[in-house]
Amino acid sequence: MPRSFTLSLGLATLVLVAACSASTGASSSASTAASAAATVAPSVAASAAPSVAPSASAALTDCATNAVVTPGKFTIGTDNPAYPPYFAEPAASAKPTKPWQIGDPTNGNGFEAAVGYAIADKLGFTKDEVAWIVVPFANSFAPGPKTFDIDLNQVNYKTERTQTADLSKGYYFGNQSVVTLKDSPFAKATTIADLKGAQWGAQVGTTSLDAINTLIAPTKKALVYDTNDLAVKALGQKTIDAIMVDLPTADYITNVQVQNAKIVGQFQGATPEYFSAVLQKGSKLTDCVNQAIDALTTDGTLDNLVKQWLPFQAAVPVIKP
Amino acid sequence: MTVQHPARRRGPDPRAVRSSLLALASCVVVFGALIWIVVNAPGWPAVQTSFLNGQVFWDTLPGLLDAFIINIQLFVTAEVLVLVLGLVLATMRSLHGPVFLPIRVLSNAYTDLFRAVPGVLVIFILGFGIPGLGLIDPKTDQRLFGIIALTLVYAAYVSEVYRAGIESIHPSQDAAARSLGLSRMQSLRHVVIPQAVRRVIPPLLNDFIGLQKDTVLVSFIGVVEIFRYSQIVSAATYNFTPYVAVGLVFVVITVPLIHLVDWLAKRGFGSAVTASGAVR
Q: How far apart, in whole angstroms, are the C-alpha atoms of residue B84 and residue B194?
């Protein structure tokens, strides 16, 4: 018994090793092919005419009706809790509809909620035909069929990410920004050099963390938290000196979450960051969603939504290199 | 059961060869079928790209191993503290007599509390609570809180292991020691505990393995150890391969330890100690 067990264990290991080594070769070639395809796909020119009427073009409607996961519905995913200013809280005393915790996407208020309905409108869906579902960040790129048509979750475009998911054109171009407590020695920083000595913190899985490591290259290792809320708590009790976040999030933190915090400044990187909608890898919808975003850019809808929901960008000073 | 051969021929026993071949064939069929089913599943190419991506694996591995140094720091430091604190707690609990009641109660309460509370909560409460008190430098290295939390939790488990060992030593050992004029503490120190510890080495190593794996929980207070690092890479690449790589690193670290436990058990550690081998 023990001998045959050891034998089978050994065999299993061998088989597994063989399977793994075979798969690594195959998958790396598959992934390079995938990324090549992805770089070609999003460069489809906007065919939608820049008409004044915000209604959908026939071509876009045709494209979308046959490609959505639930016929007759445009299903949009985002993480729960959904935060302002991307998803606005319901009016005072009202509770968000279940299962939403803080911001309620279904009311159409807040930047990403509004963008979601605007894209749906361009694709020929009425407000009632839009369904919002909870999609945790990791689920948005998990393999297998997707439960959503598009996922709007402040996902910054990264080329590496297009290996396993389609990322749309940008619907918001924003900068990373620094938040500190008002009484922090780093609150008066104006250059990157002023910020190198700070203990940084950020949320895991964000491009903000990349920005800390590439833009700032701090002397102390950054602490990385599961959520922005935890990073904000650590800031509040001075475990960390500074947080890097997208500018709209910085506004929410300083206005709502921590009263004695301030936005020290924003960064203007060489390559501007932008939010993309996440879609199933190779989705038929990617093309029409890109066209819809082009149309919303051309007719000024996205600019108006930025002005309506994210109205503070100009006032924040730029941190110099 | 075993039928003796009238005369043992040289060379391998044909029946042993036959059973080995059967075992081999059965393994090939069973594991072959499992692998065939997985590889031919409709979603396999997508799963392969997401979970077994060779390029991502090799790109991630150096960073992962670098981050794993933090896990090693955490579990080595915590384990040393756990072994000491656990033994202190178990000894406190093994003191007889009405005078020692408060000590026994304290030790009991401690093990009850820290075995009941999920480890991740202890880490959270220390990591976010202690700096919030404003008594110590809020910039205190978060690894320290991780080590303290893991020590608190695992010392509770380990003290119970020690206690089981202490209680498994026959009272006659203590009685004999006392009759030689040793005090209760001396008897514990020189007679009971040495035998008890020897007996519980396998379960102690088990808890050490548990501790190693629980070091990933320290990521919750911001420390970029191996799991948090893999999360970062996973989110940046939209790929789950870094998690598989973390699993592999833990397997490589833990499996030899598991087999050490088995080997020790075979050598007599952990089983009843014979009278001759009782005290070394």
A: 14
